[in-house]
Amino acid sequence: MTTRINLISGPRNISTALMYAFRSRPDTTVLDEPLFGAFLEKTGVDHPGRAETIASMNTDVQSVIHGQILGAFDTPIVFIKNMGHHIAEFDDWSWLLEVRNVFLTRDPAEVLVSFSQNVPNPTIELTGFQGQVRLQRYLREAGRPAPVFDARQILEDPRSTLEHLCQELNIPWDESMLSWEPGPKPEDGAWGPYWYERAWASTGFQPYTPRDVEVPEELSDLLVACEALYSELRAG
Questions:
Q1: What's the average model confidence in pLDDT over 94-106?
Q2: Long-range contacts, 118-127 (Cβ 8 Å, 24+)
Q3: Angle between the N-to-C axes of helices 108-118 and 220-235, in degrees from 0 to 180, rounded to the nearest 10
Q4: Considering the domain 3-235 in this protein, what is its CATH number?
Q5: Residue 181 pLDDT more than 90?
Q6: Residue 129 has pLDDT above 90, yes or no
Q7: What share of the chain is helix, strand, coil (3-state, %, to 5)?
Q8: pLDDT band at 220 (very low <50, low <70, confident <90, very high)
């Protein structure tokens, strides 16, 4: 029986590094944001690499869900890296009850400063927090609450945090999750050249370095809204 791990992340949350950690396991296959193409096609959002992304992906949502996410795999574990707002954009969330979900989040100020470098003037939907909270409420009401991890937790103590993550997911810990080869990976989405520069340069989780982030004044109202959602998400 295949164990399907569904990461519900937001942008700029070390989700690619976490995907690489799972990719390092010999028992795991990874999928990189399989709903991204469908999300871009439906919403018209103009992300970097939009045309390449849509052209390279299956944009039929039900086909992606049942043919890829819930499809057959050669490995006993599948790790699906998803963005919360990609999932939340579509009406069918029932497949979430067939996978093991985990949320990954990050301090909103850090997210906004990083994300706005690639996507100027982001909306609250594109930050991912709103979609994550909607999905969290859905899973809680369905009796399937999912664990929540903060990117900072992982960076401050990768080993113990990933061991805890594996316990929550009921899979064995594997030391190989702590490192990987640098450079692009075959599983990377077509948007990789626009977003994955730091992930491609890495060979493991980089130590967390506290820093003063200055959110642009024009994003101050968005920051307040995101902080409220972040607090709800962290509270579980």
A1: 98
A2: 118/47, 118/48, 118/194, 118/195, 119/47, 119/48, 121/218, 121/219, 122/219, 122/222, 123/222, 124/222, 124/225, 124/226, 125/85, 126/11, 126/45, 126/85, 127/10, 127/11, 127/85, 127/222, 127/226
A3: 130
A4: 3.40.50.300
A5: yes
A6: yes
A7: 50, 10, 40
A8: very high
